[in-house]
Amino acid sequence: MTRHWTLALAIALALGTAPAAYAHNHDAGVALADALTPERELIFADEFDAGTLDRDKWIVIGPDFWVNYEQQAYIDDPSVIAFTDDAAGAEGGALILRPVFKPGADTKADRNAPFVSGRIESQGKFDFMHGRAEARIKLPANVGVWPAFWLLGNDKWPDTGEIDIMEYVGEKDWIGVALHGPGYSGETPIVNKFFFPEGVDVTQWHTYAVEWTDTQIDFLIDDHVLYRVTRPMVENYGEWRFDNEKYLILNFAMGGAYPFKTNRIEKPYPGIPSETVEAVKRGEVAMLVDWVRVYAPAD
Predict the structure, then answer these.
(1) DSSP 3-state of 274
(2) How many angstroms separate the CA atoms of 157 and 148, rounded?
(3) Are 117 and 80 contacting, i.e. CB atoms less than 8 angstroms apart?
(4) d(Cα 229, Cα 213) in Å, to the nearest integer?
(5) Residue 258 — φ and ψ, nearest 5°?
(6) Which of 99, 77, 35, 34 is nearest to 271 (CA)?
(7) What Rg value do the Cα atoms of the chain yield, rounded?
(8) Cα–Cα distance, 220 to 222 (Å, whole number)
(9) What letter would DSSP give residue 132?
(10) Do the Cβ atoms of 286 and 94 come closer than 8 Å?
């Protein structure tokens, strides 16, 4: 795994500070990095401060959608897509995507999902090719959840290409990133995990980002490049499908293929232990999104 450290973090390490400086000095580090970086054109932003979903920017996925043996039905409802103006650490308002335990609500008899949840996409509203997409996100510490922030093209999968900026399956010390395309989809070899330093985890606010060009894709957390994928790396397996427009997705899935393959939990639901079910019932499980921003390619 290729690791590149921001100038601010390198300075902190040079001064002999502990790795926890990654978390505690992050805001100062980002401020320094911003000061040293030329201003870029902001081409999309949602700060989630209005208290309602901006339907000019997002669509909401409904219950007909189903993949990966996931244990939720997506619905368009305030119970699963909500907003708050008092989330600790948020810069203003925040989007809330959360699962709700609601057996019997699923309209698909072949799925019969015990949960409902939320998924929003910018398909048909906004897409882009190359540049930087980032979101400031806070995640829950519950095994078997599967929230994600990702990009998808407008054609048939996997030929259209998929960029997974952040995937999380409930082990709070790491998140995953991946690319999918023809010849490297599903169990893709273009995948990596980032393990947080001691004292840092997904339950804190982090900025998850991708820098995307026609020759390479960098995945970042808090301006730290955690994984780099180059065009030749992809072409070892199949065609590069990342010179087309892609749209934004934020979703909160439950259980299914990825969590199950990580934890091998079968009951009460595939990939989901009873402790997580009880936490969902208590309303304790949610992904908070402070903002989403997309920038044009750097000069």
Answers:
(1) helix
(2) 17
(3) yes
(4) 10
(5) -65, -50
(6) 99
(7) 19
(8) 6
(9) E
(10) no
Find where tokens 């996100």 sit.
137
Residue (of 175, 176, 245) closest to 212 by Cα position: 245
What are the residue ranges of helices labelled H in 4-120? 7-14, 21-24, 26-36
Question: CA–CA separation, 246 vs 148, rounded Å?
Answer: 16
254's tokens: 């439950």
Residue 242: exposure state from Cβ atoms within 10 A (0-12, 13-18, ≥19): buried
Per-residue pLDDT of the chain (299 residues; tens, 9 = 90+): 333 333 343 333 333 333 444 544 555 545 544 555 568 999 999 999 999 999 999 999 999 999 999 999 999 999 999 999 999 999 999 999 999 999 999 999 999 999 999 999 999 999 999 999 999 999 999 999 999 999 999 999 999 999 999 999 999 999 999 999 999 999 999 999 999 999 999 999 999 999 999 999 999 999 999 999 999 999 999 999 999 999 999 999 999 999 999 999 999 999 999 999 999 999 999 999 999 999 999 98
- As given in the structure block, the two tokens for residue 47 are 């700060």
Type of residue found at 78 = P
The CB density around residue 181, as the number of other CB atoms within 10 Å, is 23
